[in-house]
Fold Golgi phosphoprotein 3.
Amino acid sequence: MNYNEGLVQRKHAVTQENEDAEDAADSDSSDSPENKLTLMEEIFLLGLKDKDGYTSFWNDSLSVGLRGCIIAELSFRGRIQLEPASMRRRALTSRKLAVKNDTPTGDVLLDETLKLIKVTDPPESVRNWIKYLNGDTWNPLKIVYQLKNVRERIAKNLVEKGIVTTEKKNFFIFDMTTHPLTDDNIKSKLTKKIQEAVLDKWTNNYQRIDKRLLALIYLAHASDVLEDAFSSLNDEDYDLAMKRVGELLSLDFQVESVNSNIPEVLWSVIATFNK
């Protein structure tokens, strides 16, 4: 092995060590007793009508967006990764998903998905997993991968965390379980965090944005709930915020997956929604 080859190998080794350390840090913080909100819970909260306690009947993007959140959350917790890239650098959305660490997270939705990914052979791509988890397939062999009652289970988690409560609401021809907010402060902080990221704290280098916050912005857009986060802005700030979100959406995700310290799985999720 020549000197240059040694340098390249050491560089790759250091990069992998840094990624593993970041994965461990994300996993520790997410699995801690303080129990931060998951990406799924944050997106659900953004789309939740505060007093009525339900999400929009007309938002077809929320269900599939929540499945993307599950994949992204598993990545942040160091449980899954993309298969190694070949010399041909296949598209992010076509690379297969693999389990990196099968230790349960303690979250029912995450652990159910992790088990499915682990036992599936041959492995599937991120794009396919999001479709299957949402039930978007005509293949009867794949329909078993559909996650059921996702919004209800997310709401249950939020009830247990004291953020929403459970009520029954009558809609004339049927009754529905609703989950009005009991803690307005949590959602207000969440909304403010997103607004500040694209306004007061905006930087032309997106890599300075916290990784989970960046994921939240992308996934809120994919789930069609970003408008809810920006609804309180005046017209000038709204236009500026949307312009900057547009800049994030215009990135070359394939290139960024190589050059940034953000998990490749997240870029694959983003690329799936912005194909």
About this structure: The first helix runs from residue 3 to 30. Residues 23 and 78 are 5 Å apart (CA to CA).
